[in-house]
């Protein structure tokens, strides 16, 4: 039995991905593989459907046109034959969330229950855009948001990329993708935090009352008491004493 692969947009991380990456995608999406995908905001130049023809995804489209559900669109639909019924599937590239909004003012239209209400005729809804995995079922419908397929920043050092496997009964389960733990580092973030903490401590120190000297250097040295040695060294270098 052919098993389709469903991609809810952002097939590429950048609309102008390299020829090498496009060629690898064309090789992966060969005609014997059932791949159905829609467009994501990362796939579109300036997020504009009108510029779709300039994108890396449009090249993939040209190579494997039958895979695309709707040319340049961020939504589409397809059908999957299950064990006892033919499931109607909606693909949607939209920021979807369940409990707490991902940011202040996030559209209520993206809340899971509102997605279910908006598309009551679909059994399975596959969404993209949100990089955090989400799986929700309400007894009649299932929403699957697989999350990002790769760790894209140091903040995702503990993130486990995954795909979801749709079962014949319309449910789904996650399949974790093996990752190497030593390829992502937070070292540069920790250094930045240490630097910011030292600067904050210095600024706070400057706001405290101290004895005022007529000599600027003496007053400054008074302020620098107890300040981190690295910060003090930088200040002295700026004064020409380093």
Structural key phrases:
26% helix; 9 strands; alpha/beta; two-stranded parallel ribbon; 5-stranded mixed beta sheet
Can you describe this structure?
With 242 residues, this protein is α/β, with parallel strands linked by helices. It folds into 2 domains: 5-180, Metallo-dependent phosphatases (Purple Acid Phosphatase, chain A, domain 2); 187-238. The protein has 6 helices and 9 strands. The strands form 3 sheets. It has a 5-stranded mixed beta sheet with strand order 3-4-5-7-6, with no helix packed on it. The chain has a two-stranded parallel ribbon with strand order 1-2. Strands 8-9 form a two-stranded antiparallel sheet. A hairpin with a 5-residue loop joins β8 and β9. α1 packs parallel to α2. The longest helix is centred in the C-terminal third of the chain and has 20 residues, at 187-206. It is elongated and about 85 Å long. The termini are far apart. The relative contact order is 0.09.
């Amino acid at each position: 039995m052919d098993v389709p692969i469903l991609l809810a947009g952002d097939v590429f991380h950048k609309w102008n991905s390299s020829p090498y990456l496009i060629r690898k995608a064309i090789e992966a999406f060969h005609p014997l593989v059932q791949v159905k995908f829609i467009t994501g905001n990362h796939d579109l130049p300036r997020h504009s459907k009108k510029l779709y023809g300039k994108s890396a995804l449009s090249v993939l489209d040209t190579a494997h046109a039958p895979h695309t559900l709707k040319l340049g669109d961020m939504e589409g639909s397809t059908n999957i034959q299950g064990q006892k019924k033919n499931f109607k599937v909606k693909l949607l590239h939209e920021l979807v969330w369940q409990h707490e909004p991902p940011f202040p003012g996030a559209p209520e239209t993206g809340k899971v229950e509102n997605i279910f209400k908006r598309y009551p005729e679909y059994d399975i809804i596959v969404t993209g855009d949100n990089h955090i995995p989400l799986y929700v079922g309400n007894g009649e419908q299932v929403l699957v948001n697989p999350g990002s397929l790769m760790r894209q920043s140091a903040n995702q050092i503990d993130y486990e990329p995954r795909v979801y496997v749709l079962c014949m009964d319309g449910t789904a389960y996650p399949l974790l993708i093996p990752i190497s733990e030593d390829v992502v580092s937070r070292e540069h973030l920790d250094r930045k935090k240490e630097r910011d903490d030292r600067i904050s401590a210095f600024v706070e120190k400057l706001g405290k009352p101290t004895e005022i000297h007529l000599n600027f250097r003496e007053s400054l040295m008074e302020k620098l008491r107890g300040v981190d040695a690295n910060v003090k060294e930088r200040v002295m270098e700026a004064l020409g004493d380093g």
